[in-house]
Predict the 3D structure of the following.
Amino acid sequence: MEKQNNNLQSGKVPFISKLAYGFGDVGCNFSWSFVVAFLMIFYTDVFGIGMAAVATLMLVSRFWDAINDPIIGSLSDRTHSRWGRYRPWLLFGAPITALVLVLCFWAHPDMSPTGKIVYMSVTYGLLVLGYTCVNLPYGTLCGAMTQNIDERAHINTSRSVAAMVAIGIINIVTVPLVKLCGDGTLSSAKGFLCVAVIYGVIFTLCHWFCFAKTKEVVMVPTAQKSVAIGQQLKAVIKNKPFLMAVIGQLLFGFILYGRNADLIYYFKYVEGNEDLFSFFSGVIIIPSIVGAALFPLVFKWTGNKGWAASVFSLLMGVSMVVLYFFSPNEDPVLFYVFAALAQFFFSGFNTAIYAIIPDCVEYGEWKTGIRNDGFQYAFISLANKIGMALGTSLLALAMGWAGYEANVEQSATVKEVIHQAFSIVPGVLWIITAAIMLCYRLGRKEYHSIIAELEARKK
């Protein structure tokens, strides 16, 4: 038992496990990043659904998340199998979710307007549920792989690097792939359906690899019995670092996903060339990888993952504000330099904001005696999705208010809304996020003290 306790805190996670965990996020992004970047334009420009209906769906779906996220989190905490608590969800949930992803991108142009909205609502609701059943246990799995704070930083660096590579690949190949598989345009229903099938297969295989090569070693304290949801909520409220993580994820989802949904509109309508989206994505993929790999160094310098996130967020915000003043058509060098800088700092922030989550679980166990990894991660997931819903729905409402019409030349007002959403608005919000993340107080020294006390209690 003593040897096992030492391994939990100081043992190294095998490289293959770190790699496999990273591939899990590759799979996640071949579903969710594809959805975030292309589902909205699929609905408006291919399926023929109005902006108001899309905005309403994004908002209403979060009420569904508010119900299913805590339930799935609690169920994953209570799962008992020979594979652990969280890994079985990857094995069985991935192929089902992949099937629903395909259904979401299966257009039915002959449906009535009401039928389209019903089909969109049902398939999107099922996709959100399926994604929660896979992504929530996947995110929680990191905390079950080790209690070593530096190893967790490396695991999340692997995850972030893999995610940045996946997002880069998706953004580079999706537009030409949709055109290749369809009729040569970005408005091809057949093209989107074929791409969804390909990405669904990748989604499943990546999660199966993650399932096969990871291992859960951090268990619920043997003395802890089943805890009522009310008690778990009270424990969560007392966990101040966790509340900061929830706020960080809310801002993260709001800024990131709103901008990501805007990207394809920006290049198609403001710059007049949707193929620039793929080139833009190719330019920023290397900065993405390097920025994610830099996180452990910034964490070592600050001694606090929240402060590391703050540094990255501030520099990213400044880069995005500056980006507003350049165009890929008129000032290509400066445009892509600041785009690369913004992505470089974003990757570091992305790594940091996820790296703080498992540490909050240890703090919660130390503070309240309750360890509920999945339940806590459910609120992280919910905050991220609420942020995404607000970001994407507000973008849709703003574009609809400005007079957006699919597949036509947009007015100056619409173009300005899209341009602001690409740079100024997210830039200012990232600077605000930087100031907020300075309030995160669970540093390296405090964490090691908490782990030592938890081990002493077990003995």
